[in-house]
Specification:
By secondary structure, the protein is mainly beta. The chain contains one helix and twelve strands. The chain has one domain: Jelly Rolls, CATH 2.60.120.10.
């Protein structure tokens, strides 16, 4: 499976906490795009796609959700519920996001700019792509 959880280094004192993210240092790629997902509700799933070449880091800034990750052979569930744990998802990984807490906020860092042709939005097409 081409994913891993990354423990982010937390700096803090009585005033609060801070986490710094640096491309090619704390995460394994140059950051080309940042976006966030917010105003989520529990019974609305998201994702249901894969990326051919893009890598991503996802952080639950507030709240929680489940990621179902699939490499075409194995499916695993990862729960994101802490802002100091980042989920790295590599190339060719199907992802589904489920069981959002109300108002969950996810920040996503991507290794490339948005390109619709980079997305695989049908699971059967994803399996075909893996078997090329």
């Amino acid at each position: 499976m081409n994913y891993k959880l990354i423990n982010m280094k937390v700096f803090g004192d009585e005033r609060g906490k801070l986490i710094s993210i640096e491309g090619n240092r704390t995460i394994p790629f140059d950051i080309k795009r940042v976006y966030w997902i917010f105003d989520t509700v529990p019974n609305q799933d998201r994702g249901k796609h894969a990326h051919k070449n893009m890598e991503q880091i996802i952080v639950a800034m507030d709240g929680s959700c489940d990621f179902i990750l699939d490499d075409g052979k194995t499916r695993e569930k990862v729960v994101l519920n802490r802002p100091d744990i980042a989920l790295y998802i590599g190339k060719n990984m199907w992802r589904e996001m489920k069981n959002f807490s109300y108002g969950c906020k996810l920040m996503v860092l991507a290794s490339d700019y948005y390109d619709e042709s980079e997305y695989i939005r049908n699971y059967d097409d994803f399996i075909k792509e893996l078997n090329k």
